[in-house]
Structures are given as structure tokens and as C-alpha cells.
Input
Amino acid sequence: MRAHRIGLLAAVVTSSALGLGCATSPRLKEIVALEGLRADPQLSDPDRRAFDLLAAADVLLVQACRYWERGKDQLARRDALMGQIKLKTALALLQAERLRARSAELDAQIALSQDEATRLDDQLATDLEGIAITEKLRTMTAASAEERKALSQQMDVAKKQAASEHQRMTDQLTAIKRRAEVLDGLRQVELTLKTAETVEAPRYAKSKYGAATGVLQDAHKEFDAGHWDEAMARATLAQSEATDAVTLARPQYEKAAQAMSNSARDRNLEADATAIAGVTTRLDRQGDLQRLVLLLHGLFADKRSVLLPDRAAVLDALKELLAKYPSYPLQLTGFTADQGKPDDLVALSLARANAVYWALVSRGIDAKRFSVDGKGSAQPIADDTTAAGRGENARVELSILYHITE
Output
């Protein structure tokens, strides 16, 4: 694990040395802050329990730098902020460990004080026993009485001093433990706020996020003043507000991200469809439903429903387009010129639509995506009294359906 973390640090150092992170624009403040945290001397040789957090932070720093190099600032900020969270958590763990070590040291000192008090009690008992034996053997003298009184007074002072020291250490240990609990609570709130920032809570849950940051500032003031109970109460309230901010912001953030992704994919689909040679396109919108219509001409000989071999390249291009965008539902609709009996024209248009359907399915397009229909001579798009117009009307339309995201 340690070797893995050292490798990650080497990757980060190499990237910085080569200037890859700041070739075209100033470094993001989130990345600078993460690198500053990473340079904290407390993290030079951390406790084994912090290795995973440091390794994860190093990975996030590398990823943030790479995203930044590619101009993906939002992703770079996200990974840099998550890296800061990991490092701050590691620092909190190390500080808690030092506090626990200090607590153990104080416990040991208390134990030594108790042993000393016991030893002094034993010594006093021994001295008193000696005095009693001496009194039995000798006549009590004023000097021996004064000596015993002085010794007793000394022992009383020693006991009081030991009791006072014990109480002082106990109070100090209690304060240290309480401070550690409050500090952990503050770090938890900061971690939750960082999580809220990754889902843009300042934008989508402004009130809750603002309340959480304000209460957290008050908690820090109480903490700095040594008011542990007040600081913990405010930290608990800030944690509740921050959690609510994450809950409120996440659905809106995910919806906005998905809408942005879908819209970009739709524009790419339209561009790719327009680029197919021998195919014309148009956009039909009904409410929030968009139909990208590809008009296919010249696929069949007159009055026939067998695909012409020399039009295979068009079908191959359609197959590549539909395979690239596999989630869109499809409609195939056949049309003819107005020359013949209506029933015969409907049958011919349906047969042609089915011929295109089977050609695409045989090339690997999922059959469940299609609906197939034939409209005969209905819905002409050109003048049927001319040969050119009839050629335009004799067509198969491939409609790709999707919803518009504003």
C-alpha cells in the first residue's frame, strides 16, 4: 500500500515538474489548495489507517490535473475538492490519534501518582508502626511526639497534593476528550459541506447550504473560545442543514447533468445524420417530442420492393449511425407516388418499408427499436404530375425519435 502511494506521489510530482498542469491557464484554486494540504508535514509519515485516504487523495490529485489539462475544469474541481476532503479527513484521524496518545500518557501519569500515594501510605504505616514499637520500648518524649506530628502533617500535605494533581489530570483528560469529540463533529460538517459542493448545493439548495456554513462558522468561534458544549450543539445543527442541502441539491444536479448530456448527444446525432451522402433530413417537432426524419430516395426500381444492390452503401451508413446511437426508438414509413390503386400503393409502400427494416436488422440493428408502416400515396412532398415530383414522393422515411430538453 505504501509503495502504491509513493508511486502516485511520483506521478503527481512528474506532472507538476513537466508543467503539464498550467500550460494554457492558471491553476485552479481547488488544485492549489489540494497540493497545499498534501504538503502538510503532518502527512509525511502518517499512521497506517490514513494510508488509504492519502492514496485516494493522490489519485484524485492526478485525475484533477489531467482533467484540467484537457480543459475539463468542472471535473477537475470536483476531484480536487474530493481530494481535499480525503486529506482533511486524514489530518483529523492523525490529530485524533495524537490526542488518544496524550490521553494514554496522562492515564499513565495518574497511575504513577496513585502508586506514589500508595507508597507514601505504606511508608506512613511503617513509620507509625515503628513509632508504636518505640513507644512500647521507651518513654514517650516530647521530641518523638513532635517528630511524629510533623511526619503526619507532611503526609497529609502529600496526600492533598496527590489528590489535587489527580483531579487536575482528570479534568484535563476530560477536556481533551471533549475537545476531540467537538473537533470530530466540526470535521464531519466540513466533509458534508464539501459533498454538498460537489452537487452544486450553493446553487440548488442555497438556503440550506448558507444556513449550514453560517452555523458552522459560529461553531468554530465557540470552539476557539473553548466552549465545547456550545460548539457541539452548533456543529450538530450545521450537520443537519448540510445533509438537507445535499438531499435537496442532488436530484436537481443530476437532472441538469443528464439534460446537458442528452442535449449534446441529440445535436451530435443530427450532425452525423446530415453528413450521410445520398440522404436528406428534416426536423419535425410536436411539443417536446422531436423527430429527426431521414428521407431515403432511389432505393427501389419502379413498382418494385426489392432493394437495389448499388444502394447498399446508404444502408451501411444508416446501420453505422443507428449503432452509434442505440437508445433511440425508430419509425420506418413507406410512401409512393399517386399512380395506381390506393390499396396496391399502401401494400407497395409497406413492402418497401419492410425491405429497409430487414436490411437494417440483418446488419445488426435491434428489431425491437422499430415500428414499420406504409402510407401509400398519402402525404406527398412534391408535385405528382411531374416525373421529378413522383420520384420525390416515392420514398422511405426513417424517423429517429427523442425528447427535447430545454
The chain has a mean pLDDT of 85. Residues 2-194 form one domain. Residues 67 and 74 are 8 Å apart (CA to CA). The two ends are 47 Å apart (CA to CA).
